[in-house]
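Design review, sub-item: ligand-bound model
Attendees: FS, YL, KQ
YL presented the inputs for the B1H complex:
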Amino acid sequence: VRRVTSSDATAPHPPVPALELPPTADGFTAQFLRNLNFDGGVTLADASTNDRYLALARTVRDYLMLHALADQQRQAGAQAKAVCYLSAEYLLGNQLDNDLLAGDLAGVAADAMAACGIDLDELRRHEIEPGLGNGGLGRLAACFIDSLATLGVPSIGYGIRYEYGIFRQTFEDGQQVEQPDAWLTLGAPWEQPRPEAAQTVSFGGRTETVDDAGTVRSRWIPEWNVSAVPYDYLVPGFRNGRVNTLRLWRAKATDAFDLRIFNSGDYEQAVRAQTFAENISKVLYPEDSTPQGKELRLQQQYFFVAASIRDFLGRLPEDFDLARLPERVIFQLNDTHPVIAVPELMRVLVDEHGMAWDEAWAVTQQCFAYTCHTLLPEALEVWPVELLGRLLPRHLEIVYRINEEFLAAVRARFGDDEMRIRDMSIIAEFPVRAVRMAYLATVAGSRVNGVAELHSQLLRDKVLPAFAEFFPEKFTNVTNGVTPRRFLRLANPGLSTLITDAIGDGWVTDLERLHELEPLAEDAAFRAAFAAVKAGNKRRLNEVLQARDGMRVGDGHLVDVMVKRLHEYKRQLLKVLHVVSEYEGVVSGRIALADLQPRTVLFGAKAAPGYAMAKRIIHLINAVGSVVNTDPRLDGRLQVLFPPNYNVTLAESVIPAADLSEQISLAGKEASGTGNMKFALNGALTIGTDDGANVEIRELVGDANFFLFGMTEPEVAEIAQAGYHPAAFYQEDAGLRRAIDLIASGAFSGGDRSVFEPVVSNLLYEDRFMVLADYSAYMAAQQRVDAAYADQDGWTRAAILNVARCGFFSSDRSIRDYIDRIWHTPPTT
Ligand code: B1H
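KQ shared the predicted structure:
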């Protein structure tokens, strides 16, 4: 045993090798038992499932920490430029399997658990996923940090440690009920609190001007503070020894805060004030795509970006020249949620470091880049000036000055074109004076990117055309991607093994190698093996659904899946109309039961709690399901399953089992989609519109292996322009009329016609997302699906080609594109 001397404490030293590397089952077992005994305070004999789970998680983290310490030491002197990914959401999913895979610990962990008589699968099922995001945007952030680590890019993910993540969805009488997501209650073994690295974040108050040796400067006198305490997650690269950090901030009342209240002697007020501060990181706002302009949400946004900027600047050498900040960092803005970071960095540089405005602006412009994730006008965040001025008065001044100088530049180029000035102003005047965060991000950032080719083009042409004209060089595209580690290697072990047996395991970090599978589509034995994997995945899904919800997919059924947030633009209603039409067809005798391709239609979707129409649509899906599933005339050949609480964990069981992937948004509305990529990569065929990344999927897999239907974006724009009349489609299409009439008749609501009346009249008289206009094309495409599925071997061939041709959709490729087009941050070793 080496003696620890006092010099060890100060001199840089290699991490103490407390654990054996490479890991052995004995070493792993010993560490597991240490954690169980000393961290958990229980013996193996007395340990509960939770105790064992926590000790296992700790042990996995210990091994990763060894890599992290070594990695930090290697990177310390490197002075490489880092990516700071600023995102209000990270939809991480379970950590255990992810970290076992990345750290190559699955084998020793299994042996160690077996040696202790513990069922590893039971511990896997015990994990509660951190659901710190709503949907695609949050999951994208999680995929990106995985790829950043795997590619060896120095980076930090910054976000919020919500005490309550996305709500847990239950159904009562078919209607959504939201339950709090208490993911922290049984312990959070993957995170490490770092109270010593807390930052203070200020709010409110006023500004005053001071004469600083002849220059008039503004400064902020805030009114209240909160403390931001970081909680760190290890983000391991795939077996490369690299470990990055995800730093999530938790709001705590500051000591000063406590003291002030303590002095006032008002105990009740003291407790209330503490709650007030800590509310900031209490709950994730459950709106996907449609932000609500709530004050607490702005507090959350400023809270995490202010803490993150300070945190990053604190990592630079004491004497670092901030004029060179762009050499060391790029802050990537994940949508507009962190855009308040722009005036914050300006404030830090100008007010706190005394930098001249113009120089600070030049630095700031190089340090930010902005990703837009939407096309819906209602999704573009704006903050009322009144609110911003009250919460962050200095930031409002800074935004005004940025806008003034920007509009002066616009005038200098285009003259006093007041229409243009009003269009481009960062400050909107109607309906209330408000800051347009997307405009601020566009003016401030070095780059603006959309998330799929079509989306980036529409962003230039429709959402920000004046800006694209003014700053053509800023606009670029980075098509989204998904991590093949979680969504293929882990979620689909059967297919992973089949692929690896055929082409080796290089695909896990080089997904384009899936192309090597293409010739195997013509190999009958490979097709049979592929089909067997799909059948096995359906059995696995059934085990999960049985245990979770008492549901099962029918034997021999085509598994038709639509899982994503519930939003009208995504058109779950179109899928419902298809189901109702098939049902009506059989019941009325127009379709012979024997001609009906047996199908299970599986939905998964959460609705924002305040989104009434979305909740009615959930109710309708459940109502249709309970009628269709139990009508003896259908004999079980058409099933509608809607397991509640769709999340990352359920996705990992559902996606590998799917035959058909529903990607049926109205063209021009879905920015990208990422579920579409996960399904294709797992060998489901897509029925989809020409929208988002569907366009690129279809181009890559080929028209023969994709069921395209519906209007194109220009066609949508044209009929919108001409005046869209949904009722005309209802009048002209007898099948559509029968389906809608059946819903309107109360057939799915126990004869009560009022229940779904709002859904029906919305479809007939408004139908903002043109469900009725695409209905007949969708029905025809579903007929092509049925015909194609009848040829099982042909279907399997097409499915294999989907897998083989979707390597492009790795988030590793997305990150390489960000590096090449935006960040210019080479990987380090
Ligand atoms: C996407 C959001 C979003 N776009 C506001 N916008 C939110 C907007 O809390 N909010 O207020 C939360 C989320 N999310 C999605 O991003 C797009 O709809 C998808 O098409 C895209 O694939 C995904 C990732 O780019």
